[in-house]
């Protein structure tokens, strides 16, 4: 090995962790210490709060926090907070919002809010015997055993919706599930769901041990493998859509509304049937979704996993968005499975998350679901609009121009020159370098 392993790293103070890293991996270079420290917050209490969000924290990692205004969602005008590092995401969302604001804006519908979790267990027993035991004894005991855990959630209108026994023995010998659905109201509910599931596992073990339905050999075969929520929530879903008369699809690209609608629909259909395109298509959707998910303190990895699993639910990976152009009406929509919360987790701790939720009018979890679906739909609309008209690079590279100039160390005066220079040209990295060198040689 080229470095020595370390024992007790987590027990070192923050400075001790930094000293070890810099000395062991970075040749003691003080510049790296300075990089870490310049991102510490001057407010010691706020810095400590950030450090306690996760383990072994030595600094903060900044992301741009932008605002996409003019989103008319279900009759309310909102400005969306977006935490994202990719050029053109905020600009594209804003442009789409502005396009639809005078056409009725975005409409949303909460289709369902069920979340799921499973107790996975192995049991060498005939399925019909286990099903009888579940229906006539176990299900009631499972609900009774979690009454204390679910009390507060039930007071808020949520709780356990249903529990079912799933026979998976055809796919894996002796494998069964207790599948439970939950309503967690305004919380994402991961801790609540997992606590209920862990109690299910304990109750299952206890009830099997004392039941007269099973032989001792069968009882001994019971193995609780794991109790865990699922991030695939196909029954926690929201629809967001836009629509207008075909003639209202006026575009400054020079093509007619009818041609625009036809090409747009073709682009969506390609993403519905071609997985290679669908992957990039849905990545664009999640550009919009994740940026707001992060800004509101929710788990973007969970939203990503769920969305992509849903996109492949029928056996082929497909577009999350859909389009029709029937009877002279253009309609574009998304059905997005997403599980988020507005209480618990970072929502009560992170100052910028509090700001984001206040900016959005302190939405309920369902209202936040709607906002996220709209953000994804808007981002996808903007991307497809560019693709079928001017091409994606024209707008994207103009947004990327400042990144290139910053890498070159351009002055503010030089940056302004480049904005003017590329006003009627397509930005390319090669052309920026050539023009930059030409300027510096003068």
From TrEMBL:
Alphabetical UniProt keywords: NAD, Oxidoreductase
EC number: 1.1.1.88
SUPFAM superfamilies reported for this sequence: NAD-binding domain of HMG-CoA reductase, Substrate-binding domain of HMG-CoA reductase
Biochemical pathway: Metabolic intermediate metabolism; (R)-mevalonate degradation; (S)-3-hydroxy-3-methylglutaryl-CoA from (R)-mevalonate: step 1/1
Broadest EC class assigned to this enzyme: oxidoreductase
Record field: catalytic activity: (R)-mevalonate + 2 NAD(+) + CoA = (3S)-3-hydroxy-3-methylglutaryl-CoA + 2 NADH + 2 H(+)
Pfam families: HMG-CoA_red
Family matches, as PANTHER family: 3-HYDROXY-3-METHYLGLUTARYL-COENZYME A REDUCTASE (PTHR10572:SF24)
Family: Belongs to the HMG-CoA reductase family.
Protein name as annotated: 3-hydroxy-3-methylglutaryl coenzyme A reductase
Organism per entry: Chryseobacterium contaminans
